[in-house]
Design goal:
Order of helices and strands of chain C: EHEHEEHEEEHE
Structural class of chain B: alpha/beta
Helix content of chain C: 25-40%
CATH topology of the largest domain in chain B: TIM Barrel
Number of strands of chain B: 21
Structural class of chain C: alpha/beta
Shape of chain C: globular
Largest sheet of chain B: 7 strands, mixed
Distance between the termini of chain B: 15 Å
Largest sheet of chain C: 5 strands, parallel
CATH class of the domain at 7-73 and 83-152 in chain C: Alpha Beta
Number of domains of chain B: 2
Distance between the termini of chain C: 28 Å
CATH superfamily of the largest domain in chain B: Metal-dependent hydrolases
Strand content of chain B: 15-25%
Oligomer: heterotrimer
Strand content of chain C: 15-25%
Number of helices of chain B: 13
Number of strands of chain C: 8
Shape of chain B: globular
Chains: A alpha/beta (326), B alpha/beta (432), C alpha/beta (196)
Strand order of the largest sheet of chain B: 3-2-7-18-19-20-21
CATH architecture of the domain at 7-73 and 83-152 in chain C: 3-Layer(aba) Sandwich
Chain lengths: 326, 432, 196
């Protein structure tokens, strides 16, 4: 696996399988009374959340703690520049603290990649601007695989403000990578003009797409004023693209309704739909912890001797495990 | 003033259209003689075997940042950078603090340039007061102070009516040109780079080429309406080039420039979120770059101008969307053009020098610069080694380091720069 | 240069004997639970449970335990070690848990297994059953039930094959001095050939 997880392009289809399989093991750990294993004991994981997000941060924090790692939370609401400390200086401080892994969420696209230039540790992208959110995509893939038994050939629609959604990007790239069929649905102003190059279909008519889906993935549509240039009103958006109970009835039996959260009930998804049994939104959250444990384990659990994030001692004095038949 | 004899350089004179090996004798600030095996016993001989001698380069578009932004660049460091890059004349754009919208700031810039003495500076005056795009600045007063080019560079003139008035008004003055930065603010808003496949995969907001093209179309129409002299800054799109070609065929008095970085790079060079590639107008598609090169060769685009835009290290080392736009370019312009256009055969050496020297001198009305290289003319010259290889890395003469060419290997390097008979750069080193 | 130490019949007899020893030691199957260490130890544990069922006509709970997350060498190899399934569906509190593994070598796997087991509860006691004990302990650990004691050099490579995973039952040894095999998550070289 790659040293960092910055985007879905950093993982191959085989890596995805490995990540999901390993998450399964961590799911089992999560079902124990003692939900903790010593795998990353003594490692330091920093949550660098420069864009607000309580739920993702908690998910990563739990994941790291259940691996017995030490967790530092470094959060700030606004941009680091506006707070007076540059991202670079923050990075150098974390580097000096010996962070083995840095989980970064930032409102500027590309900042995780920039971070890798200033730190030795592993960098995980927890969401950067409108670029990518790979851990969300992976937990969504895991949820789909758990519920539907496969990923290859799955028919998935991603509905909503794709243009501004890092989740939509990562999920599209991930689904295409594992052989699923993806259709983006939304008003033309919210679908990136060159989305065709991603290997996906595009539709502006949600009702024609729903009957042929295994998964209907709803994106959050922001009410903020700036977005209103893209569609005339929330009312019209909901009328044309919202997942109402009637529309949910068009979905085939056994299909899933998913949402990365937080939901705008009444905008992209009606309240009663969010509470249907086929809506697995809470499961996505639970799976998030297992996936993040899997990623932290796979990234920090490997590493050549002498690597800052790996073994500290030279090979000669490294105690090694007895042969476990493999 | 010294007396010098340049021994056997290859003399490329775009005005005379000549390209021959010859000695050049300079004394008292002017060219004395050109020919083979000149006799000049009192002259200091300078061996130029294998080197090229040309008219000193002229930059139509540079930001020297003084007054107001001295942490990025000063007139002293900027003119030194210009000289190191082979320039004997450079403009200074008006977006300083205070804005160069009155004679007092113009005088200050000229005075600082005189004191530095390394390169002639032609200050550009703002078209509108404070660059606010509302009211015309006192253009006539600035013309008296020596200004020949007016530009609100950084912005385009927002209203066609204001542009019409400016173009019409300056017809009262000899040789004055309005230079436009063509960018529609509403289409370009929020754009960090060119809008396309690359911006989409990088998750960055982009601005389409139409953000430039709609303003080029408007400005050409207003130029037609007024019969005024219009210059278009840093063109980046194939569509803009096509419109300029038609306008020139029609006989409109329009000139255009392109930067070295738009001739060399494209949107794909931003895949690593390198903020030194974050420029305005943005680096567009490879097809646009191809059209820009062809337009430069066929003179649809008259000149190469650097748009030298220094920014402090900490400003550029920020998150991509927080970093300011711009790349420095004075020290790399000639080398970049030689390496990426002349050497591969896309541009002749003569045309390259014309675009870097003669053509901008003509647009600027800088009569002492741009050639021809003949007796009696002021000795504003550059001597360069077309085969010297070097890696672009600090230290630079410029105060800033934000070069799009950082870390790259270029071929061709300035050896001597002569300003009115004085060697301001000798053996690649600034003398002041 | 490999040779077979135990063939399928040898293995079958050894497991039968171990099953008898387990129930004899603790005077019956009451309170006994088997936990096999993945990979392969869990298959052996299931077979032992079946044997005990046949002998005593009563079921003994069987679980599988993956100890990857408890290893002491995480982060020391290029890839994070591969994880197998853990499934312990019963309460281990107060039970006599017999850990089952295929090969006992340095003892580090058993150390990790005991730590893992403790996170599931507090067994009354823990015993250890292994198919092969090849010596060279690096920790103070010993087996209670042993299929076969095999003297080896540190650098030798001992592998157990079980039909559930490998299609056949066999214990194979490769006695080549320089051959050290590494599996991601599987066999890790001992300190063989290294000075402490």
């Amino acid at each position: 696996m790659n040293r960092h997880l910055l985007s879905m392009h950093d993982v191959s289809a085989e890596d995805v399988t490995r990540i999901l399989d390993t998450a399964g093991s961590f799911q089992e750990v999560g079902s124990r009374v003692i939900k903790k294993v010593p795998a990353l004991r003594g490692r330091t994981v920093v949550n660098l959340f420069l864009e607000n997000s309580t739920r993702t941060r908690i998910s990563f924090e739990l994941a790291a703690k259940r691996l017995s790692a030490d967790v530092i939370n470094f959060a700030s609401g606004g941009s680091s520049v506006s707070k007076g400390e540059s991202l670079k200086d923050t990075a150098l401080t974390l580097q000096a603290m010996g962070a083995d892994a840095i989980v970064i969420r930032h409102s500027s696209s590309g900042s995780p990649l920039q971070l890798t230039r200033w730190v030795d540790g592993h960098v995980l992208n927890a969401g950067d601007g409108t670029h990518e959110h790979p851990t969300q995509a992976l937990l969504d893939l895991y949820t789909m695989r758990e519920r539907l038994g496969r990923l290859d050939g799955l028919r998935v629609a991603i509905v909503g403000d794709v243009l501004h959604s890092r989740v939509a990007r990562s999920l599209s790239f991930g689904l295409v990578k594992v052989g699923a069929e993806v259709t983006l649905v939304g008003p033309p102003t919210l679908i990136p003009p060159d989305a065709g190059a991603w290997g996906v279909q595009v539709s502006y008519d949600i009702e024609s797409v729903l009957p042929k889906l295994d998964v209907c993935y709803m994106l959050r549509v922001q009410r903020e004023r700036q977005r209103l240039e893209y569609f005339p009103s929330v009312r019209e958006y909901n009328r044309l693209f919202g997942l109402s109970a009637v529309r949910a009835g068009l979905l085939p039996e056994g299909s899933l309704i998913m949402h990365p959260g937080p939901m705008n009930r009444g905008v992209e998804i009606d309240s009663d739909v969010a509470d249907l049994p086929q809506a697995v939104i809470e499961e996505q959250v639970t799976n998030g912890i297992a996936i993040r444990m899997s990623l932290l384990y796979l990234l920090l659990g490997g590493g050549p001797p002498g690597d800052a994030a790996g073994a500290a001692s030279p090979a000669a004095t490294v105690p090694e495990l007895e042969a476990v038949d493999g | 003033m010294g007396e010098f004899l340049f021994r056997r350089p290859r003399v490329v004179d775009p005005v005379a259209g000549s390209d021959d090996v010859a000695d050049v004798h300079v004394a008292d600030g002017v060219i004395r003689a050109i020919g083979l095996d000149l006799e000049a016993p009192d002259a200091e001989p300078i061996d130029c075997a294998g080197l090229v001698l040309a008219p000193g380069l002229v930059d139509l578009h540079a930001h020297l940042r003084e007054p107001g932004f001295e942490h990025k660049e000063t007139i002293e460091s900027g003119t030194r950078a210009a000289a190191v890059g082979g320039f004997t004349a450079v403009t200074s754009m008006a977006n300083t603090d205070p804005v160069a919208d009155n004679a007092a700031v113009i005088h200050e810039v000229l005075e600082l340039a005189r004191a530095a003495g390394t390169c002639d500076v032609f200050p550009v005056g703002a078209i509108t007061r404070g660059l606010h795009g509302q009211e015309m600045a006192e253009l006539g007063e600035m013309v008296d102070a020596g200004v020949r080019v007016f530009s609100d560079d950084g912005h385009c003139v927002p209203s066609a009516r204001l542009l019409r008035n400016a173009l019409t008004y300056v017809r009262a003055f000899e040789g004055v040109v309005i230079a436009e930065h063509c960018e529609d603010a509403s289409l370009a808003e929020g754009g960090q780079m060119h809008e396309g496949l690359t911006s989409s995969s990088l998750g960055l907001a982009g601005q389409p080429r139409e953000a430039e093209e709609v303003v080029v179309a408007r400005d050409l129409a207003v130029a037609r309406l007024t019969g005024g002299r219009l210059h278009l800054c840093h063109l980046s799109s194939a569509g803009s080039v096509e419109m300029v070609r038609r306008a020139k065929a029609e006989g409109l008095r329009v000139t255009a420039e392109v930067t070295p970085h738009h001739l060399v790079f494209s949107e794909e060079d931003l895949l690593t979120y390198d903020t030194n590639m974050k420029v305005n107008p943005p680096l567009r598609a490879g097809s646009d770059r191809g059209e820009l090169r062809a337009a430069l060769a066929d003179r649809t685009i008259d000149a190469i101008a650097t748009d030298h835009a220094p920014h402090a290290v900490e400003e550029k080392e920020a998150e991509f969307d927080q970093a300011p736009f711009g790349t420095i370019g004075l020290e790399t312009a000639l080398s970049a053009v030689l390496t990426h256009l002349v050497e591969p055969g896309e541009l002749t050496l003569a045309r390259a020098i014309e675009a870097l020297s003669t053509a901008p001198a003509q647009i600027l009305g800088a009569g002492d610069h741009g050639g021809p290289i003949e007796p009696g003319r002021p000795a504003n010259l550059v001597v360069f080694d077309p085969s010297a290889e070097w890696v672009v890395e600090p230290p630079f003469a410029s105060r800033s380091r934000n070069s799009a060419f950082l870390g790259r290997r270029l071929r061709g390097r300035v050896v001597h720069t002569m300003l009115r008979g004085e060697l301001v750069v000798a053996d690649g080193k600034a003398q002041r | 240069m490999s040779s077979t130490l135990l063939d399928a019949d040898d293995i079958r007899r050894a497991l039968t004997r171990i099953a008898h020893e387990i129930v004899e030691r603790d005077k019956g199957p009451e309170g006994v639970a088997l936990v096999g260490i993945a990979n392969r130890g869990d298959d052996l544990a299931r077979r032992l449970a079946a044997e005990i069922q046949a002998i005593e006509r009563s079921a003994v709970p069987v679980g599988a335990l993956d100890i990857t997350f408890y290893r002491d060498d995480i982060g020391m190899k290029a890839e994070a070690p591969e994880v197998h399934e853990t499934r312990i569906d019963f309460d281990i509190n107060g039970k006599t848990v017999v850990l089952v593994d295929d090969v006992l070598f340095t003892g580090r796997t058993i150390r990790a297994a005991m730590d893992a087991l403790m996170d599931f509860g507090r067994p009354f006691r823990i015993r250890l059953a292994v198919l092969v004990d090849r010596g060279h302990r690096e920790l103070p650990i010993r087996a209670d039930f042993v299929g076969k004691n095999v003297p080896t050099r540190r650098t030798d490579d001992v592998r157990v094959r079980v039909r559930e995973v490998d299609g056949e039952d066999a214990v194979v040894i490769a006695r080549t001095p320089d051959e050290v095999s590494i599996d991601a998550g599987g066999e890790i070289p001992s300190n063989a050939g290294r000075t402490p």
